[in-house]
Amino acid sequence: MPWIAKLGSDYANAGANGSFSQNQWIGVTVQIRQACDLNDTVADNIISRPDHCSFDAIAADYLQCGGRFALQQGYCLNQNQIPTAAQFYKDYVIGTKTVFRGPELGSEVDLGLSGGYLTGTDPTTFDMEWAKDFLGYPDNYVYSDSMVSDAETQNPGMATADSFNLGDFSQNRGKIIMYQGLADGIIPAKGTTYFYEQTKSQTTGNIDSFLRYFQVPGMHHCWLSDTDADPAGANAFAPWMFGGAGQAGIVTASEAAQVLGKPEFDALEALRQWVEAAATDQNAPGPASITATTWFTGNQTVWRQRPLCPYGQIAALTPGAEPNNKSSWTCQTTS
C-alpha cells in the first residue's frame, strides 16, 4: 500500500508539464500495446511477454511527440512528460532495498486517470486512505518513505507476506493454483512472481508437486482485459475467464456454464481434482495448463481461447494456425 500512496503522490507533484490529459493516457495505453505486442511473435493486441519490452526502448519512437510511430498532438507526450510516465514502471527502491516491484508495461488501464491511482491535482482517495485507516496518519499527511518502515513495524492485519517456506503445507498434501494478470496495475505481476520465486528457493523439494503459478497475458486485476471497437464485435482482446475468484459474476450465466465445473477451463475445478487425487496419490500431477476464454459481445459465442501455461512456460502458436483456437497453442519453455 505505501507504493500506491507514493505513486499517487509522485504524479500529483509532477506539475502541469508532467501530468497527462485523459487522451494522452489513452494514447500511452494504445502505443505501449502496439509496441510491446511486437515482441511476442504473434500480432494479436495481447502483450504476452512484457519482460521483453522496456519503457525506455519504446518511448522516443512510440510515445514522445514527433517520434517515428507516435500519435498526433493531444495523444502523445512531451519531453517533460516522458520521465513522469517512466517512473510508474520503476521498482520502488529506498537505499539498496527494493520495497515494491513496479507494474508491467500493459497495465495502463488499471493505473489510469479514471478510476486508477493517477489524477492531475491530488492523490486519489484510494491512494491515501490506507495510511489513515490502518496506520493512524492524520488527514493532511504528506507522503514520505517513512510510511514503509511504519507499515513494516505496525504490520496491520498481519498482512506482510514474507513467510515463503511452504514445506509444512506441502507435507500435508495441500495444493495451490496461483494466477496473475500481466496487465494488472493494482497488484502488479512482478510482486507475485517474486513471491513464487522466493517460495521456490526456500521450500525444500520440487514446488511443482504442490504449486502451479499461471500468468494471464492481458488480464487486468482479477478479470477483464483491454477493450476496443473490434471489427468482429469482440469486447476484449485477451482470454481471461478460467473460473477465477469473482470471474463468474462478470460474464453471463450462459457463458459461465461453458467454463465452470470443467477442469480444462475452470481453475477451481482443476484444483479440486488435484487435491482429491493427492489424497490417495501424493505424487498426483497438477494441471499442465488451464484454458482461458473470452466471448463476442452480446451473443455469448466464444471468440478466443488459449492455454495458460505454468510459470516458466509460455503459450506458443503453431505456425499458420488460427490464433483464436486453443488447439493452435502449446506450452513451451520460455527463453
TrEMBL record:
Keywords: Disulfide bond, Hydrolase, Serine esterase, Signal. GO terms for molecular function: carboxylic ester hydrolase activity. Its EC number is 3.1.1.-. It is an enzyme of class 3 (hydrolase). InterPro entries: Tannase/feruloyl_esterase (IPR011118). It comes from the Eukaryota. Belongs to the tannase family. This is Carboxylic ester hydrolase. It comes from Glonium stellatum.
